[in-house]
Design a protein that fits this description.
The complex is a heterodimer of chains A (about 260) and B (about 230). With about 260 residues, chain A is of the alpha/beta class. Chain A is built from nine helices and ten strands. In chain B, about 75% of the residues lie in helices and about 0% in strands. Chain B has eight helices and no strands. The chains are: A alpha/beta (about 260), B mainly alpha (about 230). Adenosine-5'-triphosphate (ATP) binds near residues 51, 54, 55 and 57 of chain A.
């Protein structure tokens, strides 16, 4: 079954990410089987699917935390082909990853740095911004996620929701072209979910290009321009939220009341 | 004999203080070099390159398996011969004497490095994977990742082990007396033998070692509090 291409009406939009016939195996098992996908610039794509369907793997193939076995990824103006034995230089990876940043399920903040320290670490040491400039940038984005009051607090003293907002500020501070979210609210207590979702909603409203793996069906429906339903490594359904959530193949997984 | 005024602790205060200073110098230098060797050893042990891993494993396993006293004697003799042999390879035939100080530092550093290799390896492996992955996901180069994320992330895990090794090292400097170098213990032995006030001098030595170890324990505790400021 081949992937459906996005059916957004903005056909003239520039494409931020193209995934072509991507295959990824872990120990002989094809975790991604011939996945193809296009994400137009300035749109939000949600990836849904049951546990183990390959959502994280797909996301991690986009910033090459996982190395696909074959296929092609064009992202942020860079083209990567896999399966032809070609080596990818570390400097190419570094450039790609400074332009496509990620927010993790488990936040993964660096515990030895304060909130601000976490946010300015990559701008300082990857983009090599000066101290003053990085600090301004860091404070700007902490402000944006409502965490400026906690700029000097270490992650251990922050709640899960606060940690995740700092992690989002950290991803924003690189001023990336594309943001990747891997289940950003799944590790949170229910009462902390909404503060993180509201930050992500604001980002969506700004017209940022985002890919979001999520189990929050209502939220996905609300913010997405495109929804992709993954099932055991294949894209079963893709399209507008309405079309996907109303598709019978998707019903068993994501009834709108879920 | 009875006519002679017995030598008192005071008469030996100068040499003993000097010996204590030398002991501290040896320990600090050996520790610093050991830290470096340990970092290199741990990086090698965790590297994806098999020969490097084998070399580091050989080093840490072998050194830790042999009594330190024996190692000190072995390295003292073998080390001198090895350096002479190396020099002869380059046609330099001059018999150079390696100072007792350099030998002491070299030998102890080599032994410390083996133990530190293990401490650092364990401390690095204990860093949660996600923190390393986050560094990768933000485009850190390998070196930046190492010195900005891995090193600071590892210190809290490594410090208890490192503090232990420092205490062991201070005490191991006493073993250096077997090669006849006048650090603290050697000086005390001489004083005790010459004055025959064995108990007094050895007790004094004990007190001095105690002072050194307790002071350093306090310093390590402060350090640990500092590197753990991001923890509970
Ligand atoms: N590093 C790995 N080594 C081996 N198998 C892996 C690895 N990472 C993922 N897998 C396997 O690949 C499959 C897809 O995993 P993935 O994490 O992408 O699923 P997911 O859709 O994100 O699931 P979840 O909703 O639980 O996060 C799973 O069967 C998983 O066991
Ligand atoms: Mg996942």
């Amino acid at each position: 079954m081949t992937a459906t291409n996005p059916t957004t009406d903005a056909a003239h939009q520039k494409i931020a990410i193209t995934v072509d016939h991507l295959v990824k195996c872990f120990a002989e098992i094809e975790v991604l089987q011939d996945v193809s996908l296009a994400v137009p610039e300035g749109t939000v794509t949600s990836i849904i699917g049951s546990s183990g369907s390959g959502k994280s793997t797909l996301l991690r193939c986009l910033n090459l935390l996982e190395r696909p076995d074959s296929g092609e990824v064009c992202i942020a103006g860079e083209r990567f082909q896999f399966g032809n034995g070609q080596r990818i230089a570390h400097s190419d990876l570094e450039r790609l990853r400074s332009r496509v940043t990620m927010v993790f399920q488990q936040f993964n903040l660096w515990p030895h740095l304060s909130a601000l320290g976490n946010v300015i670490e990559a701008p300082r040491h990857v983009k090599r911004l000066g101290r003053r400039q990085a600090r301004q940038l860091g404070e700007h984005y902490l402000e944006k996620v409502g965490m400026i009051d906690k700029r000097d607090t270490y992650p251990v003293a922050l709640s899960g929701g606060q940690q995740q907002r700092v992690a989002i500020a950290r991803a924003l501070a690189m001023e990336p072209e594309i943001l990747l979210f891997d289940e950003p609210t799944s590790a949170l207590d229910p009462e902390l979910v909404s503060e993180v979702l509201s930050v992500i909603r604001d980002l969506a409203d700004e017209g940022r290009t985002m890919l979001l793996v999520t189990h929050e069906m209502h939220f996905a429906r609300e913010v997405s321009d495109q929804v992709v339903y993954l099932d055991t490594g294949r894209i079963e359904v893709a399209g507008t939220p309405e079309s996907v959530f109303n598709d019978p193949r998707c019903q068993k997984f994501a009834s709108p009341t879920a | 004999m009875t006519a002679m005024q017995p030598e008192s602790l005071l008469d030996w205060a100068g040499p003993i203080a000097n010996g204590a200073l030398v002991t501290l110098q040896i320990a600090v230098l050996a520790y610093a070099i050991g830290l470096l060797l340990g970092l290199i050893g741990a990086s090698a042990k965790l590297s994806p390159i098999p020969p490097l891993r084998a070399l580091a494993t050989g080093y840490s396993t072998l050194i830790r398996a042999v009594p330190e006293l024996l190692l000190i004697i072995l390295l003292y003799y073998a080390g001198g011969d090895a350096i002479e042999w190396l020099l002869s390879l380059f046609g330099l035939d001059s018999r150079i004497e390696i100072s007792g100080f350099a030998t002491a530092v070299g030998v102890l550093a080599f032994v410390q490095g083996a133990y530190m290799t293990e401490v650092f390896r364990g401390a690095i492996v204990a860093i949660p994977r996600g923190q390393i992955e986050a560094a990768d996901a933000f485009g850190f180069s390998r070196w930046t990742r190492f010195h900005r994320i891995v090193l600071p992330g590892m210190w809290p895990n490594a410090l208890p082990g490192l503090s232990n090794l420092w205490l062991i090292l201070i005490k191991d400097t006493a073993l250096i007396s077997v090669i006849g170098f006048n650090e603290l213990f050697f000086t005390i032995q001489q004083a005790a033998a010459s004055s025959r006030a064995h108990f007094v001098f050895y007790a004094a030595a004990g007190a001095i070692y105690l002072l050194m170890t307790m002071t350093s324990t306090a310093i390590f505790e402060r350090l640990e509090r500092r590197v753990r400021r991001g923890e509970a």
